[in-house]
Write a structure and sequence with these properties.
Helix content: 25-40%
InterPro entries: NTF2-like_dom_sf, SnoaL-like
Order of helices and strands: HHEEHEEEE
Structural class: alpha+beta
Radius of gyration: 15 Å
Protein name: SnoaL-like domain-containing protein
Organism: Dictyobacter aurantiacus
Shape: globular
Largest sheet: 6 strands, mixed
Number of strands: 6
Number of helices: 3
């Protein structure tokens, strides 16, 4: 895979979440994938990821915004920063974060998210 393939695959994954499209999300993942959310839960394999997606998109839950703000790639991995906003269980919230993704056979085999836990600010010494 090349950098544009990595970027396309990640954008397809993110756009799937924004559209609430289970098949689109799962179509980017290797059957033996591992996805780890920023607050700890790990989902192993597309069957478990599918159950997570179904649970996450309960009535009223939506991804309002997920914008990738930077993208860096290596031979079989990429890192990307993002801003995320969702409405979940009736509450709208958001945060900044970053993810590491590894690829195998043109699919995402590993995706780990990290979140900022406090607002960003300029340090003035």
């Amino acid at each position: 895979m090349n950098a544009s393939s990595f970027n396309h695959l990640i954008l397809t994954y993110v756009e799937g979440w924004k559209a609430g499209d289970r098949d689109q999300i799962l179509g980017t993942l290797d059957p033996a994938c591992v996805v780890i959310e920023s607050y700890g839960p790990a989902y192993r394999g597309t069957d478990m990821v599918g159950r997570w997606i179904d649970s996450w998109f309960a009535p009223g839950n939506i991804v309002n915004r997920w914008d990738i703000t930077s993208f860096f790639e290596g031979d079989d991995f990429c890192c990307f920063e993002w801003t995320f906003e969702c409405t979940y269980d009736g509450h709208r919230s958001g945060f900044e974060g970053a993810s590491i993704a590894c690829f195998n056979n043109e699919k995402i085999v590993y995706l780990r998210e990290y979140a900022m836990t406090a607002p960003r600010y300029e340090w003035d010494g």
